[in-house]
Amino acid sequence: MICDNLDIGKVKDYLNTEGKRILVYHRDADGVCSASLLLKFFPDFEAIPREGPIIDSKFMKEITGMNPGMLLFLDIPIDQEWKKVKKIRDSVPGIKIMVLDHHLMEKDLNKLGMLHINPRFDAPDIYCPASYCIYKLFKKMGLDVEPFIWISVIGIIGDYGFEDCGDVLQECVKRYPEFNHGKDIKKNGLATAAEMISAAITLKGGEGAKLGLEALVKSEKIEDFYHSRTFRRYREIVQREIERITKDFEVNKEIFGKEKVIFYQISSKLNITSIMATVFTERYEDYAIIVRKHSDQGWKISLRCQKGWVNVGDLAKDCSKGIGSGGGHPKSAGALVKDWDKFKSRVLEYVKK
Fold first, then answer.
1. What is the pLDDT of residues 215-224, one digit of tens each?
2. From the CB of residue 258, how many other CB atoms can be counted at a distance below 10 Å?
């Protein structure tokens, strides 16, 4: 589906643009894996990890100052910042801008003279992580990407893209049966690898994303990455923190049974709200899980709803208006707000409706 209506010749033309080529990728497991697949076949891109789609003045200046011939946003819903992307295009003569993403869309950038690829153009409710999309795209382009299907699946697992990516998951299981430990794909060896990448990012932020990207690009076989002592150590450190926070959660969580919402405040030195929200939603899948952690910028919030009875992407966007920003997927979202009490009261009113 990702490639059915694409002009593959145009994609090749963009990816082979002469001059400086910049890759801006999402700072999570899916972003790192999809970026590594790209660099396997197009190694001349200069890669920059980003936590989200926000384009501030510093980043704008950084990108335009590089004067790139081609700018690729990967696994980032940069169409949310379409006016600033347009400004980048207008500031750099002749630049080609390409977006390969899977998030909910606000703007079709194809109409602004860019190349915008997203499976939601054809199926609005589909959930196919960027690692899946780029794998399917490269197969359509005739690239020998099959030996690296394990990288695609690590990204798919890291982004919880199980339901709509079954063909690639099954293809990988057949190729690497030794990593398929039973029926639960969330507990197999590739899930462990996804945790290793996420742990590096949790511990080291953008530098951790760069380390993960570098390691995957260098790895010719799955074993090259899977047995990395460095990344296994990162995972062990984060797993110990997950266990500690999980115990505290059971004692200090705030449950609103009628509204089916659970709030929890994390106290940790690690940037771990997203990971913990995912852990908690697997335990309380009937509830909307809302985890917060205080930072210099305000309250960083991760939202989950495993059963999908409330669209937490819409909830995060609506409840953060005027006090911050938020958004995401129907079952997984994030927000950054300055007024927690107002956000919390809005959430409870929202779910009552």
1. 999 999 999 9
2. 9
